[in-house]
Each structure stands twice: as structure tokens, then as C-alpha cells.
Write a structure and sequence with these properties.
The chain is α/β, with parallel strands linked by helices. It has helices spanning 13-24, 40-44, 62-73, 161-170, 190-201, 297-315, 326-329; strands at 2-3, 6-9, 29-33, 50-51, 60-61, 79-82, 86-91, 97-101, 106-109, 111-114, 120-123, 153-157, 176-181, 206-209, 211-218, 222-229, 233-238, 241-244, 248-251, 262-263, 266-268, 281-283, 288-289. It is elongated, with a radius of gyration of 22 Å.
Length: 334
């Protein structure tokens, strides 16, 4: 059985940063993730997607953020169990936890930190009758390599941050970019909305609101998207790629059966230290919920920082925790 101080479920950015903060307190960490590599959605779904709200980085690609985080935690030598799902937990006589994965790996720790992002997820798909026929033949729900779209015609559908950000990014890559959204108002960041509007005004993209894709055409490979607009009616748009970005449908999976307080597919926590209703189990990042919650990576970093302080006290109730500044001591001093 693997022994560690903090068992982290989820190896996305928040889980990885937890290793750093725990390492400063000389706490060992082991991470479990269903994906085959660390990084979560940043590595698996959108490694080339720019992120704009990481302090100190005006813009950083998601994959580069993960690379930096892995370099940052290297001195603390965390353990990884990848490609396995956290299946069940049990409380042992010494009040620690034993977690068993779907492949039988057993890990023992006094503290569990759930940093599972959206949990198990799948893309939300538009209700287009022949959509599945064109999947991987011009229809993609995830952009892994933007170079695929260089000099191509692209139609993006959606009104959130992902649709806006990729429209901005692909305007510099693709030959033609059209963004369609079923409403006139967007759900994304105001700055991104303004950038998209500027691209549309300057003719670098085509923006169609009050519209949605209703059909796809092609002979083995996508050639056209049928679009219905509220005022203009139905028209056909030639394209090489149709990318519906309607977000992900989250599912907690086995975590939902662990006795935690759940609200709308998220784990309720106390903002004092992001603890759950089960002593010794914490939840940070997109998987938790509390009044005023913002699903931002930088908020998850903050939550991880406070969580490990509480975890230290849970593991060592009789030890005095002395807060130190890394700028004074450096990583080597911890």
C-alpha cells in the first residue's frame, strides 16, 4: 500500500499547486488521476489554449502552465497514480483513509484533497440529427492542436469563454472564422467579448447572433453547416470544421457516494479551510462550491494554499505551524 501525507485526487493545476504548498510544510503528496498524464483539462483538452488570468503572465498556454507547475513541484518528488479512477474510500482504525482505485491500487493517507476539477466529464453536444456521423470528420468538441485549423474554414458555436477565446486565437490561424451564438449576449469575460466584437467590426471574423446550427452536410467529410438565424432565416455555410463549444457536462462519479455534502454536482466546503463535512477530506478548485464561488484557476490556487495549512494541523495537531515567506527562505529552506 502506498503511504503519503496528503492524497490528492486530480492532477490538474490546482492539484499540482497543492504539492508545492504542501512541500513547503514538508508534507508528502500522492496524486491520482483518471487521465494518463498530469495536467487535467489543461493538458488533455486544450494545451494550446491561452489563459489570461494567471498572475504575472499576461498570457500563457495551458500546456505551458502545466509544464511550469511540474517544474515547480519537482523538488518535492510527489507520487503519481495515473490512468486510474479513485473508486472507494474507507476510514481505518487510526482515523486515516484508505483509497482504492478501479484497478486495485491502494493508497493510505490521513488527509484527502479532492481537486478533481469538473470530475468525470463529456462535452455537451448540440441537437443536430446527423452530428455523430461527422465526429472526427470535421466536427470536434475539443481543440487539442490549433495547427489543424491553419488556413481552413472554421465555424465555432457557443457563447462562453471557451468559444470566445478560441475565436480570438483562431482568427490568427484559420483562413475564415465564423462564430455563431443563439443569443445576442455572451456569457464570457467582458474583455474577450470586446475583442470578438472588434474582430467582427474589422472583418477578420464573421459573427452571427440569434442563430444556431441545425444541420450538417458532407460526403464522408464535413463540407457545410446549415444555420438558422432569427431574422435572416436558414442558410448554408461552407466549412472544413464545425466546433460546438457548449462546455462540459460534469459528473462526480464515485466521489458522489463518499458521504460528502453535494450541491448541484459540486462538493460543499467551509471557506475557512475548504474542508468538507467529512473530517480530513477537503475539496478545492472547480469541484467545490460555496457562496461567491468563482471557477478560476487562480481561486483554486488560493484555496489550495489555505487548505494545506489546515491539513498540517489535522495531521500534526500537537505541532506548531510557523508560516514562512518563500522570498526570504526559498524552497531550499523548507
Amino acid at each position: 500500500m502506498i503511504q503519503t501525507d496528503i492524497l490528492i485526487i486530480g492532477a490538474g493545476p490546482c492539484g499540482l499547486f497543492t504539492v508545492f504548498e504542501a512541500g513547503l510544510l514538508k508534507l508528502r503528496c500522492h496524486l491520482v488521476d483518471t487521465l494518463a498524464q498530469p495536467g487535467g483539462q489543461c493538458a488533455e483538452i486544450y494545451p494550446k489554449k491561452p489563459i489570461y488570468d494567471i498572475p504575472g503572465f499576461p498570457s500563457i498556454l495551458a500546456g505551458d502552465l502545466i509544464k511550469n507547475l511540474m517544474e515547480q513541484i519537482e523538488p518535492f518528488q510527489p507520487g503519481f497514480t495515473l490512468g486510474e479512477r479513485a473508486e472507494r474510500i474507507e476510514r481505518l482504525p487510526d482515523d486515516s483513509f484508505k483509497l482504492t482505485t478501479n484497478r486495485g491500487t491502494e493508497i493510505n493517507a490521513p488527509v484527502i484533497a479532492i481537486a478533481g476539477g469538473l470530475g468525470c466529464f463529456e462535452p455537451r453536444k448540440p441537437p443536430i440529427e446527423n452530428l455523430a456521423r461527422f465526429e472526427d470528420r470535421g466536427v470536434e468538441y475539443i481543440i487539442r492542436d490549433p495547427e489543424i485549423y491553419r488556413d481552413k474554414r472554421v465555424v465555432i458555436a457557443g457563447g462562453g469563454d471557451s468559444a470566445l477565446d478560441w475565436t480570438i486565437f483562431l482568427s490568427e490561424v484559420a483562413d475564415e472564422v465564423m462564430l455563431i451564438h443563439r443569443r445576442q449576449q455572451f456569457r464570457g469575460a467582458l474583455d474577450s467579448v470586446e475583442k470578438v466584437m472588434h474582430l467582427a467590426d474589422s472583418g477578420r471574423i464573421r459573427l452571427i447572433t440569434d442563430a444556431q446550427a441545425t444541420g450538417l452536410r458532407g460526403n464522408g467529410k464535413l463540407t457545410d453547416v446549415v444555420i438558422r438565424q432569427k431574422e435572416a432565416g436558414e442558410f448554408v455555410q461552407g466549412t472544413d470544421h464545425f466546433i460546438p463549444l457548449f462546455g462540459l457536462s460534469p459528473k462526480l462519479g464515485p466521489i458522489a457516494d463518499w458521504g460528502l455534502n453535494i450541491s448541484k454536482n459540486a462538493i460543499e466546503v467551509d471557506t475557512l479551510d475548504y474542508s468538507t463535512n467529512v473530517p480530513g477530506i477537503y475539496a478545492i478548485g472547480d469541484i467545490n462550491t460555496y457562496p461567491g464561488k468563482l471557477k478560476l484557476i487562480l481561486c483554486g490556487f488560493h484555496e489550495a494554499t489555505l487548505m494545506v495549512q489546515s491539513a498540517f494541523k489535522h495531521i500534526y495537531p500537537d505541532k506548531k505551524l510557523s508560516f514562512k515567506y518563500t522570498t526570504v527562505n526559498g524552497v531550499e529552506g523548507f
